[in-house]
Amino acid sequence: MISKNKIKYIRSLELKKNRNKEGKFVAEGFKVVDDLLALQPADLIVATSEWLKGKHLAAQTEVIEVTEEELKKVSFLQHPQQVLAVFKQDAGSKQDAGNSQEEAKEEADDKEKNFGFSNINTSELNLALDGVQDPGNLGTIIRIADWFGITHIYCSQDTADVYNPKVVQATMGSIARVKVEYGNLLGLVESLPADVPVYGTLLDGDNIYQQQLENRGLIVMGNEGKGISPALAKKVNRRLLIPNFPEGRATADSLNVAIATAITCSEFRRTKSL
Known about the structure:
The chain is an alpha/beta fold. The protein has eleven helices and ten strands. It has helices spanning about 5-10, 15-20, 30-35, 50, 70-75, 100-115, 135-145, 165-170, 185-190, 230-235, 255-270; strands at about 25-30, 45, 60-65, 85-90, 125-130, 150-155, 180-185, 200-205, 215-220, 240. α7 runs parallel beside α11 (about 255-270). The longest helix is centred in the last third of the chain and has 16 residues, at about 255-270. It is elongated, with a radius of gyration of 20 Å. The chain starts with a helix and ends with a helix.
């Protein structure tokens, strides 16, 4: 049985201010929770006897067994999936798991120098999100990044919160393998060496299917309605266009940002395999 105070506490984590204050977030469903548990123990698990059967959980994890009806009272989902867990923030960062105090201090110093971000590995392909505000889109993009082997996403401060329950659910567990950071995105891009490719999908870009794409650098994806902000668009040195078909036919004004991200990432990985 779960207490009213515990229900109130978990439900309070729906709000960003409470998540930040507590340094916690909620994950639901066996796939998401199991992927996160592979990185670190949960602070709290609320689950049915079916999910708990045969589980070996850390001694420090508080476990509350509930019925399906009780789980509905605390879940953020329309159809709860056997388990809800509360984790410390940064649990989704595989790179941070197990860091020593010295390594943590070094990363904090890097972030201070790098506009709020840790060091970017420009020899790999990275994603940057400029004002992507829909939680479902952000969660789907994290899942897409995971599928295409992109492990790092850099976000502007006005991008949706990665720990929003809707984002966490939409990642379908990929939050456990993709590191998401927030900071001054324009400052980061401006600080990159001139030879680092900064890709962006823009209406005046070149047909992505006719370009030689490097599997390194940064792919910038913009806001759902406004696209990439003007100041950041000026810093894009490899301007790409996902063309509609057939050319010249009246179509939708644009693609959903998550769909555009999937198409773009797919083309980068396709050309790498040729």
